[in-house]
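Tokenised fold entry reproduced for everyone:
>
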Amino acid sequence: MKTKQLMNLALIFGLLLTAGCGDDQNTGTAENNDPVELRISPRVTLTRGVVDGTAFGSGATVAVYAEGTDYTADKSNNYAKYKYSSSAWNSDGSDKIYLTNAEATIYAYYPTTTTYNTTNLTIPVKLLEGIDATIIAAVDNVTGTSIAAADGEVDCMYATPFPKVTNKSNQTKGVELTMNHALSMVSFRVYKAADYEGTGKLTKIVLKNVTGTTLSKGTSPTMNIKTGAITEGTPTAATYTRTIKDGYTLEDTAAGAGAKKFSIMVLPISTPIGSNNIQATFTIDGAEYTVKLTQPSDNSGAWPAGKNHLYTVKLSGTELSISTITVTQWVGVVGGTLDIK
């Protein structure tokens, strides 16, 4: 009996050894800590620089930043930029990130025009601001998520941090990064009432302060690539001027249901905007109509990051007025899957 028990124990021990060897063979380079390059496949759409969908266009670039023991600037293993071309993402330049069995926290950001500041981990925020008009073209966005923004306007995005990423964990499951908007958006849907006798051609929109600096462009604003926090510096009054390409003839559908929308990206405003601080001036049929923007009921009257504040504006035979204010979130954007090949 004792001999049989010893034989059974030996058999079990042998099976355990075999299983252990099998595990080593299955994990391969991950167990041996051989570094493997990080690869990505983000999914967002760029329309004139503003993100409004789920797939990047050809030529777009995103940057990835990693933190952890093996992921430092000293080791040249914490930053890489990727470019989308020919239906594939590849490292754009000599910088690469190689995952080891040491855990990394993965971040990502857009745009990649400027490499992040290594001291405070920020990138510059570019606003298309000024009294000089920039052109904005109407798009088919009566319904759906398309955004009519000016050429040259640049969205700023950052990824929700994804921790505990290693070469082993990525063998079976990639890292899905969710991209978030760091700026705020203001949109206008303008329509004409039945008693307006003119053509109703909208040719220009100017967004500015009545007085003060509630609508601010800051001084050299920046975005933190890890948190998306905007640091604007000293508040400075902003003016956004948009010329409508070829003009846009206003619809006269009920409550502006058939009217197209025009959008402007601004720095977030964390406090209530009030009802007498910011104004919009619309040039219609050559005449200027100015209306003060009231604060939305959502978000305590503020204009937070990632929100699109849609003002529906009615032009009647006697005046221009705001009929409704709607606050919506930009399209939820999944940054993609980071795969180790």
About this structure: The first helix runs from residue 2 to 27. Helices lie at 2-27, 29-32.
